[in-house]
């Protein structure tokens, strides 16, 4: 490389990096060292407009290839989660009850460790399957690979309850 080319190489690299960030560096880009999962679910609550970090509440389908902090694929059962939304990601038009496909980014060393980096609305007639993970899930149980994972019968009380607990189970725990 000639001396003038060596002087302009860093400038060219900076321009390319800037252009790359402008063309694809939006919220949908996954952070280094993070894993991303394409997930579907239904929005159960939209963020309050005044929140610094918006959080969507989504009941999502199982994530069979979900990896633990150790990198082991353990799976994640269907569940309702509060998931922060990446900075700059527009939620315009996203309402409670919408069926959505979203990219969940998991970076165990990040803050927050989970976040939604892209989201799109699915057709209203899209069928979602809320079931246990096909792997032995460290996050909620799961079926062994030899047996099929069945969709649990969910009641409205379970949909709103943390950890799938029914209101009756919570009441029994607090009184007993």
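-> sequence recovered:
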């Amino acid at each position: 490389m000639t001396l003038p080319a060596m002087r302009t190489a860093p400038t060219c690299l900076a321009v390319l990096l800037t252009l790359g960030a402008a063309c694809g560096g939006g919220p949908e880009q996954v952070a280094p060292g993070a894993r991303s999962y394409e997930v579907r679910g239904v929005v159960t609550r939209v963020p309050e407009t005044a929140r610094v970090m918006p959080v969507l509440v989504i009941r999502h389908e199982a994530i069979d290839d979900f990896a633990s902090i150790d990198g082991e694929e353990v799976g994640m059962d269907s569940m309702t989660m509060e998931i922060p939304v990446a900075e700059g990601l527009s939620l315009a038009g996203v309402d409670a009850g919408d069926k959505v496909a979203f990219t969940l980014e998991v970076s165990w060393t990040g803050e927050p460790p989970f976040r939604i980096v892209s989201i799109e609305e699915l057709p209203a007639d899209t069928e979602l399957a809320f079931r246990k993970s096909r792997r032995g899930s460290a996050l909620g149980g799961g079926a062994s690979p030899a047996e099929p994972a069945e969709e649990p019968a969910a009641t409205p009380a379970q949909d709103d309850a943390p950890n799938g607990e029914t209101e009756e189970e919570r009441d029994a725990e607090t009184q007993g």
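The radius of gyration is 20 Å.
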